[in-house]
User: Fold this.
Amino acid sequence: MIAEVLRRKNLYKAHRQVLQNKGSAGVDGMTVYELANHLEANRDRIITEVLNHTYVPEAILGVEIPKGKGKTRLLGIPTVTDRWLQQAVSQVLMTKFELNFEPFSFGFRSEKNTQQAVTQALAYINDGFQDIVDIDLKGFFDEVDHVKLLQLIYNKVKCPTTLRLIRKWLRAPIQIKGRLHKRRKGMPQGSPLSPLLSNILLDELDKELARKGLRYVRYADDFSIYTKSKAEARKVGNAVYKFLWDKLRLPINRAKSGIRRPVNFELLGHGFASVYKKGVKGQYQLVVSKKGWKNLKRRLKDISRKTRPMSFDERLQKLSEVWKGWVNNFRLANIHAKLKTLDEWLRNRLRYCIWHDWKKPERKRKNLIRLGMDFDRAYAYSRTRMGGWAVAQSPILRTTITLSRLRRRGYESMLSYYRQTIPEIQ
Assistant:
């Protein structure tokens, strides 16, 4: 297999993917944009070291990122050279495993996505499977057993060079705040190889659930099982807990795991709300969880903060990047009404930024006149004692910085984008 990994075409494809993924520099400080020059000078040496089993990966850079509620998640960032090689291995390894993965595994797979996962879950629920076993794996990426994982890879890939390379990456030390720490289990959450390795390990769980004829949905380490009664859910939950620990050596987070009803269940940021229609009973529709709305509003608020130094066009561009990705992710949920409210709030935030940028009363007066306000009112409004947020919501700016004027400057509403992108959902 190592010959396929080190083929020029595969290495070139891996290089393009690393560039596309971007990401931060590792412990050596090399960025993805410096990789091309580095490979031009060192590619032959690196390939020779891999073939001679003398290649030694650099340490992984450990970076803590906020997780919410004051908690953090440890992200492992390999060097760009290691990311390039890992991507090359991942591309070939995927061809060996992909066809044997179960159909209800949706995470990090070609032609599989979040929308398919939540749609499948909704179909189960609306078919009457409304007692849900929701299992949260405790620190999955920190608990992976290297021996078990390598054995599963060896069952399909007999190449000792590739296996030795993967083992070296799994055992590479992690540098946290300048200190190196040994790693005897787990895999870095942030390397190109980790998503595939997680699917290889958890495919064992998928096959066990399929063998028992259970209805389930799995997206990476996030999975749930759908049953018709609480008694069945309890029985299934105990069996899955035992399988995870005995066969895969993976603990579950008891505090976050349990048996849920649809209204108390969330999957990949989506919730499930009852449909109140005449003659329809026990049916549900997709909605966005409270946390999903809160995260979007927090990100929009941060970019539209009046004191953030950027031009109006830059602000619109950054806002667009955030909410377009969010709307695409939650496009199947019922978000029409809330998007309309959020649009109004964001427009007022933008008006507040413009008002703040005008700064002095005389400049405010001139700009209000330029926007069509008569001299007397422009003078009075420019000297108002109202706070900036109150002014943004008042006729002072709503009648001057109108929606049509914002659109001419490049503003696009979230609701309009949603309607254009998802024409079938109105």
